[in-house]
Amino acid sequence: MVLDKSELANLIVNTLGEVLPIRTASVLLMDQASKTYKLVSVYGWKPSSWKNLELSPNSLLIELLKAHGLPLEREKVAHSFSWQEANQLTHDFELFHASCVVPLIFQNDLIGSVNLTPLAAAKRFNSQELRSFAEFGREAAVAFRNASLFDELKESNRQLMEIQSRFLHSAQHSAISQLAAGIAHEIHNPLTIISGKAQILLLKRDKIAYDKQVEEV
Q: How many angstroms from the chain centroid is the CA of residue 148?
């Protein structure tokens, strides 16, 4: 069975929340309509507190994920930049309640990220965990790519059904129009004959041979 992107994201965050000692988990994906990265599923957040959260493709965090292709830890990367850039990075990490961001890259294209925070506030993920996250991110990116294709197929099928429905409606309308035209033609012919003969009779009404009974007819 193929899951759509939302179902897959829900499965990932809930599974990570159950098997790992983490406090929060979320999935950020590229939204083709708005051309921004948006949260699609979370674990450990308050309900509805994450709706409409998004990140610009030009943000420093997104650029770092594209450039490095590896999990980024907030404390490590923040020390590598000026205080302005470090503040921006810290803001982006905090926006998604994450201390570690795992990129989802498919064929050099960043399609999103998995964002994690350890259960203990002072804890950091070790090197083995980070390697595991990197491998998981690569596998998850393939799954999300397949889910995206599945979503596109569903949308194409919906559009096809809509076109078929419009075509069927148009065909039915055309058939009804042709039927109505045929009926009108069948009625119109005898009415024309009757009308013509009636006009001829009325033209003769002043003649001597004109019969009152003929007028009634």
A: 10
Cα 90 to Cα 61: distance, rounded to the nearest angstrom: 9
> Which helix (H) or strand (E) is 144 found in, with range?
helix 127-203
pTM: 0.70
Of 129, 125, 154, the residue nearest 3 (C-alpha): 154
Contacts of 171 (CB under 8 A, 6+ apart): none
> Which amino acid, 96?
F
Per the rule left: phi > 0, alpha: psi between -120 and 50, beta: everything else, 108 is left
The pLDDT tens digits along the chain (217 residues) read: 567 888 999 999 999 999 999 999 999 999 988 899 999 999 998 877 788 899 999 999 999 999 989 999 988 887 878 888 989 999 999 999 999 999 999 999 999 999 999 988 768 889 999 999 999 999 999 999 888 777 677 777 778 888 888 888 787 877 788 878 778 777 877 777 787 777 777 776 666 555 666 666 6
C-alpha to C-alpha distance for 12 and 183, rounded to whole angstroms: 64
Cα separation, 66 vs 77, whole angstroms: 14
Provide the greatest CA pair distance for the chain: 122
